[in-house]
Amino acid sequence: MRAARIAALSLIGAAVAIVGPATAVADPATGDGAAVNDTTSDGVTDYWTSSRMENAVSLDINLDPGTLTDDVKAGAEVEIDPTLADSTGDPWTGGGDVVNTAGRVFFKFDGKDASCSGNAVTSDNGNTVLTAGHCVKYQGAWHTDWVFVPGYHDGQAPFGEWPASKTLTTPQWEADEDMNYDVGAAVVEPQGGKSLTDTVGGQGVAFNGEYNQKMYAFGFPAADPYDGEKFIYCGGTSSKDVLLTQDHSLPCDMTGGSSGGPWFREFDEATGTGLQSSVNSFGYKFLPNVMFGPYFGDDAKALYDKAAAA
């Protein structure tokens, strides 16, 4: 097996048997460039207390990179402007919009509490979050009790908890867990009569861009030496994976819990805004301190379009 260390699923509790709200999950539908899972928010925000979020304990998961038979389809370059409201893994102290748009994602995976990272992006519905594919569906099952906590820090949810009404991923990840297509999205429910991006802002998104660019990656790693409570970033010149995938790569030592966190190009440190061009996805066990993120091609654009219009 071609094993890779996933940078993502961080289990939030040592106990396997955890009582939580039951979530009804409809059969997923695949079409129009995305696999879609309808979910419910009943009891989700009550379940995710600050104590459960703050006491996160990471568990690394080994992931087969998958079949990798499908090339990433590239088309015309597309950029979606942001909505305004060189490190290998340091706390982000620059402030700006990214502190609000990025956040932690919490859900139940295989009966356990788990976490990833995510980011609010510009969208027609104002309620779209981008993350990794395995942060919405993994090992053949969709995650339940999915909630986004923008601006998370030290167990605090300054903008509240935003439960998902839909989670989505690419058809290639839904069918085969192909690492080239490890991209996910969620549509969250408005809170207090306001959309997500009206509340925290939304970052721009870019598709079909170039490799070998200056990029910034953000997330909430929870495995040692991190604890999931701090907002961490990596910055440097990206390159293209020459091993198994068509992913971007970036020197970075973020650990479990960071998956789904945004990668930006054209990132402005002063304003904390940029064009999201990938997400934290995985790292090879034999290649430490390097993070990989999927190329945002036409299939990622189709996924974004489906989520943004939901």
UniProtKB/TrEMBL annotation:
PROSITE patterns in UniProt: TRYPSIN_HIS (PS00134)
This protein's record includes keyword Signal: yes
UniProt entry tagged with the keyword Glycoprotein: no
SUPFAM superfamilies noted in UniProt: Trypsin-like serine proteases (SSF50494)
A single MF term (Gene Ontology): serine-type endopeptidase activity
Keywords attached to this entry: Signal
Gene Ontology biological process terms from the UniProt entry: proteolysis
Cleavable signal peptide: 1-26
Record-linked InterPro entries: Glutamyl_endopeptidase (IPR050966), Peptidase_S1_PA (IPR009003), Peptidase_S1_PA_chymotrypsin (IPR043504), TRYPSIN_HIS (IPR018114)
UniProt name for this protein: Peptidase
Annotated source species: Stackebrandtia nassauensis (strain DSM 44728 / CIP 108903 / NRRL B-16338 / NBRC 102104 / LLR-40K-21)
